[in-house]
Amino acid sequence: MDIGSYPIVLWWSPLTGETGRLGQCGADACFFTINRTFQHHHMTKAFLFYGTDFNIDSLPLPRKAYHDWALFHEESPKNNYKLFHEPVITLFNHTATFSRHSHLPLTTQYLESVEVLKSLRYLVPLQSKNKLREKLAPLVYVQSDCDPPSDRDSYVRELMAYIEVDSYGQCLQNKELPQPLRNPASMDADSFYRIIAQYKFILAFENAVCEDYITEKFWRPLKLGVVPVYYGSPTIADWLPSNRSAILVSDFSHPKELASFLRQLDRDDRLYEAYVEWKLKGEISNHRLLTALRERKWGVQDINQDNYIDTFECMVCHRLWENSRLWEQALGIDTWGCRRGEKVPKSEN
Prior knowledge:
With 349 residues, this protein is of the alpha/beta class. The chain is built from 11 helices and 11 strands.
């Protein structure tokens, strides 16, 4: 393989573990590697960084004018707070983060498809949920990452003074999961889903409050037919399946006010059903959400689609080639729009 004929894209963070691979990205191709011996190769055009591993004390310096830097970071600021300061984030030419403003937005990274939102597979009928209220609280909380930057546990602790909450995780725990489900890795198990689906409401609190940072804490209850009581992304209204599909903590001035509203919905089937009507009818009215899912170039747990890391690599590869082609075009035209070396055609006579 003649590596010298392709742009080299070097993962400075060894995320993929690939020592060298020629990746085909449509009509373009790049050589992807984690091998740092390529740092000073004349064809090395881009350095890729995984946000979790990003360290300002270990960077590919000196940075040359033709070196692009690209960031892949699906996590919140809690994971690496340095990345959320302007002097750092502006180092990157290409980004893939949870923000809709990224070059490759990962906002829907925890949502497989429209179909799973509409699915009734785990839905427990309201009549059954009302019967289950004899032994279950109306509200469930499952969290084992305690006291994060969003300070969610303090809010939940106060909320518990006004409404019954079943808390299964390590944070504020008052109820036990079956032994096989106590490992956090089991939270996508079918049996875990079945337990959570019995509840009317779930506290879906993110570990950080950032625009467009939306995790499985929000999407999971929607898939299960449980109404999320959500705290996190200030832009969550832009991503709701319908106007009435979640209860937003930010709409209430105090936990006591929220508890009063939840108790009202718990008592009144008609009011509660308004929040699951979209699912029962299979109607998602949010065009932003539908468009984002339809147009994204990567899949979630779908072997028939590229994953978001492959898509990120190809995005950078495409942009490198695009810049190269623009540069080649510019070399033939001076700043006044005059083509260099172009002369009056000579007569054939």
